Amino acid sequence: MKGVQKSVFLIVLVLASVTVVVRSAFMICDINADDLKPCQSAVTQPPEKPKDSCCNVLKTANLTCFCEFGRNNPTLLSLMGIDPDLARALPAKCELNGPADC
């Protein structure tokens, strides 16, 4: 019976940990995904010029990671309503020195 109690305790502990992770911020390339909300209008059709607040957030991002994320996750981005090509173009539109192949 102790083995069952230990297993139940571990399951509860794992579920509690997952709940905490889900409630915490989703990080993308060293930035909180919620902080990217000002960029939404620049990465959806028809795109607008990126807002200063968007570009300020991108200044803190790992731009190599950001470009790779856009290149490697086009389906995920599309499901989120984000145009992957516009997302990869965002660092240049913000006049940030990202990777040349972004």
Radius of gyration: 18 Å
Number of helices: 5
Q: What's the shape?
A: globular
Q: State the helicity in percent bands.
A: 40-55%
- As a percent range, the share of strand residues is under 5%
Question: SSE order, as H and E?
Answer: HEEHHHH
Main beta sheet: 2 strands, antiparallel
How far apart, in Å, are the first and last alpha carbons? 57 Å
Structural class, from helix and strand content?
mainly alpha
User: Numbering strands along the chain, what is their spatial order in the largest sheet?
Assistant: 1-2
Task: List low-confidence stretches.
Answer: 3-23
The average pLDDT value, as a whole number, equals 80
Number of DSSP-assigned strands? 2
Secondary structure elements and pairings:
Elements: H1 2-23, E1 27-28, E2 31-32, H2 52-58, H3 63-72, H4 74-79, H5 84-93
Antiparallel strand pairs: 1-2
Helix pairs in contact: 3-5
What do you see in this structure?
The chain has 102 residues and is mainly alpha-helical. The chain has helices at residues 2-23, 52-58, 63-72, 74-79, 84-93, and strands spanning 27-28, 31-32. It has a two-stranded antiparallel ribbon with strand order 1-2. A hairpin with a 2-residue loop joins strand 1 (27-28) and strand 2. Helix 3 packs antiparallel against helix 5. It starts with a helix and ends in a 9-residue tail after the last helix. The relative contact order is 0.14. Mean pLDDT is 80; it is low at 3-23.
Keywords summarizing the entry:
two-stranded antiparallel sheet; 102 residues; 5 helices; disordered N terminus; mainly alpha
Can you give me a brief rundown of this structure?
This protein has 102 residues and is mainly alpha-helical. The protein has helices at 2-23, 52-58, 63-72, 74-79, 84-93, and strands spanning 27-28, 31-32. 54% of the residues lie in helices and 4% in strands.
